[in-house]
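#help-structures

NK: newbie question. if I give both the sequence and a SMILES, will the prediction place the ligand too? trying with pyridoxal-5'-phosphate
OV: yes, paste both and it writes out the complex. here, I ran yours:
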Amino acid sequence: MSATATFLPFTKPSIDEETISAVNEVLRSGWLTSGPKVKELEAQLSAYFGGRPVRTFNSGTCTMEIALRIAGIGAGDEVITTPNSWVATANVIIEVGATPVFVDIDPKTHNIDLNKVEAAITARTKAIIPVHMCGLPCDMDQLYALAQKHRLRVVEDAAQAIGSTWNGQRIGAFGDFVSFSFQVNKNIMTAEGGCLVLNNEAEAKLAEKYRLQGVSRSGLDGIDVDVLGGKYNMTDLSAAIGLGQLKRLHEFNAQRKKLALHYFDQFGKDFESSTGAELPVADFTNSNWHMFHIVLPERIHRAEFMQKMLDLGIGLGYHYRPIHLFTLYRERGFTDGMFPIAERIGKQIVTLPLFPNMNESDVDRVVAAVKSCL
Ligand SMILES: *Cc1c(COP(=O)(O)O)cnc(C)c1O
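OV: that's the protein plus ligand as structure tokens.
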């Protein structure tokens, strides 16, 4: 690492002074946990998603678990998902007692290959959890046509897709259950947190119960518990961060898009043919550019490549190692070779730095480093 170059991580949140003050105010208010800020964030998110009911939670994992519970999915049911995601996407299926069924991914989009889903549907299939990888949406027309044909519930893992669109409509503004994460690395964050977009007020009420021990209240001292809920509520501290972030979502995503465009410009037309590496789908219509991935050629050993980049002051990520090859999943019968595309990509993919506070010269530096390390 040269003396002048500062370390460039693969992502970093942008937090303004106004948001820091808002968090301070919550601390001084005496109301720290779920309260007025949570209500305000939920109202703003609902407006953002075209008026659909939205509830916030303390992660973008419990959102999916709760969606499955609301849909009544449990023991004996199968849920189809992608092996190429953060492990949360499949863990929630096991958590509710159902069986995860994986379908391989498309080599270009890295999303679940919807053309292969039908072959995985059985009489026990109840739902599908697609992931909009890096904010690049799945083909929503094909997805919902499949779901309708086979009477499947859909829980969109839109953890990475806030601000992404399909035919001009926001992801989350249509569809079935749509789950977003506000974990610190996402396009907007609340330190930890998430939200679930639901279909109607009945589902939203049930989501509130699953969120907090199954409790429903009435009057000053009325309380009952009629479902087994957990402890998944968002704090007002987090909601205050979220309100500050949501205000800037459009600006953040515009900057991500600009930087992604600059990556393509800098890599140039012959980058793939001259190196054997693969660039992401150049989608500047629908994607929110949550991450910028390249797939390294087979001749390159990923850990060595990451170390070389680190020596140049550049931190990379890898998203993701295929879920089915983790021990927990191998113990359930999954093995190497079952989903070859996810396995190849999971072994060779790296995430390049991309976050709103970067500038184009940072991109230039990353591209020069990638080219030299290849
Ligand atoms: C971040 C992420 C999650 C989990 O969200 P948390 O808020 O960390 O629980 C799930 N799926 C995908 C695709 C993610 O990127």
